[in-house]
Fold this protein.
Amino acid sequence: MAETISSTEVVEQDNNLWSGGKPPMKASYGKLMMWYFLLSDAFTFAGFLIGYGALRFSMPNWPVPEKVFNKFPFTGEANLPLIFVTFMTFVLLASSFTMMRAVQEGHNENRKGVINWMLLTIIGGFTFLGCQAWEWTTLIAKEYTSIHVNPFGRMTEDGIFLNADGSEGEAFEAGYSYLIHNINAHEGGHGEEATADHGEAAVSHSHPGDYPDALIDEDGYIHRKFKVTSGVDAGQVKSAPFGPKAFGALFFFITGFHGFHVFSGVLFLTIILINVISGIYVARKNGYEMVEKIGLYWHFVDLVWVFVFLVYYLL
Amino acid sequence: MAHDHEAGKKLALKTILILGAITITEVLVALTGKGYIISGFHLAEAILAIIMIAMSAYKAYLIVFEFMHMRHEVKGLRFSVLLPMLLLVWAVIAFFSEGNHWLHNRDQIIQKNEQVPAVETIKPVGD
């Protein structure tokens, strides 16, 4: 803190910076190291996100994010692109705001204020984690995405879907987004209705096999058949392939790594909150610097989410 | 000190409101550009990407400089944390051009993949 350094000390420091005793960047050791830890963490996340970008650029059938992330709790199959992740973003931004307020109350040596704002921050963190759990559950349990299998894809040719009697049905163009449904997903009850936006046919088979309108593999994935109408393969009948495998692996890894940061952040916030309540920081009389340090970490988690939100959902 | 405190409160509120407004704008622009709000209206992907990246960069600036108080740190600390980030500019250029290269050489990649035992589980129908 600048105000704790008296003018004579500043002069001495200028004369002999290496004699120690004063922080060279006017930030304590812990705060400085938090900054450098966050710098290294930023590189880790940047590595993941840039790797994601390179792989996404390399595949013409990479899924379109707003077609994948279009579910919202309690609205069933309604098509609400990006609304839920926007909500998650707001939760995290709000928790960053409450964290900043906690740090400010700390500077003011207002213990009660720190406790209240930190509690709100922790609630925000848990809300975000809950939202992420819901999102993952939807992808894994309802849409059968895993790190090995990605049922979301895009057509790379024009074509016409085939009907159950082998006749030609709905036509589509290259770039068309689809979701490969799983027969097991329908056992839950709500049949094959809706999600027309994904181009679901009312494929009515319930056992693996080769049908005129779809190929259902051993794991129950329904690969709709279509006749190609453009390119070198025009006239051939194909079944819709899985989307790029890397999509699921990257999604679960990047959002999982971020979620792990949020989770550990919540843990540290809780520990520091307990310390605040116990009055340790009152005795230290350093403006609740520990709260400031965990605050830096928490804002960083929010910062990373800005970029995850950008490259995974918006673009 | 009390005056600073009031100013800080105001700053926090102002920052979060700006961040929220930018986020809403981002989502609206993304959905409009992709044809969800005005039917049949699409923006070029490159334009959309530039708008999104610019808005996110501004959000990042607000978080680092206001929320994380970087504005009030000394120059040395600011530069020692922010300058290394410039390395990422090269990483982005290098990896994205690499990805683009893969995209335009897919035939060759597929050909190479077929030389080793295939691990595909789905056999294409009609071959």
Q: What stands out?
A: The two ends of chain B are 78 Å apart (CA to CA).
